[in-house]
Write a structure and sequence with these properties.
Layout lengths: L1 H10 L21 H6 L3 E6 L7 H7 L3 H6 L6 E8 L6 H14 L3 E2 L7 H5 L9 E4 L10 H21 L1
Parallel strand pairs: 1-2, 2-3, 2-4
Helix pairs in contact: 1-7
Protein name: Trp repressor binding protein
GO molecular function: FMN binding; NAD(P)H dehydrogenase (quinone) activity
Keywords: Flavoprotein, FMN
Length: about 170
């Protein structure tokens, strides 16, 4: 999903990079607090872990009190995305959980508006709170066409708002 966000933003003329909370592959770049400060917008996502963000993401946000004290992220646009193994696997709870540190930092949280027709027709992932993916019992990383369109809509909206705020 993160790569779908990046590809969409780049295709629209923006710049985007993927950062991870924990290095798993040689090419992975671990997110830093400076990444948060220097970005124009943030798409924040993790897999669902019992209806919550992954512990690595929570641990990272717990290190950002100095940014909070300075108001370093106030008015920065952001959106959230997540994945789970089933339709009722906690995606919406995770999206709400992902939103909390962003709101505490004063960021501008963007959802997926209902003018995205796939939001009303999805039989897999996608919510007004953010883009989601349902991996199923086989743990598939392949997004459905509906999930892709919802990710793209969220990415385009994030870029559009970031450009308006520049």
């Amino acid at each position: 999903m993160a790569h779908e966000f990046v590809d969409t933003i780049v295709a629209q003329g923006g710049n985007a990079v993927v950062r991870v909370f924990e290095k798993r592959q040689e090419h992975d770049v671990v997110v830093s607090k400076q990444d948060l400060v220097s970005c124009d917008a943030l798409a924040f996502g993790t897999p669902t872990r019992f209806g919550m963000m992954a512990s690595q993401a929570k641990a990272f946000w717990e290190t950002t009190s100095d940014l909070w004290l300075k108001g370093a992220l106030i008015d920065k646009p952001a959106c959230v995305f997540s994945s789970s193994s089933s339709m009722h696997g906690g995606n919406e709870a995770t999206l709400l959980n992902l939103s909390l540190p962003l709101l505490h930092h004063g960021m501008m949280l963007l959802g997926v508006p209902y003018d995205v027709p796939e939001l009303l027709a999805t039989e897999s992932g996608g919510t007004p709170y953010g883009a989601t993916h349902i991996s199923g019992s086989q743990n598939s990383t392949v997004l459905t066409q509906t999930e892709i369109k919802i990710c793209r809509a969220a990415a385009c909206r994030l870029l559009r708002v970031a450009e308006k705020l520049k």
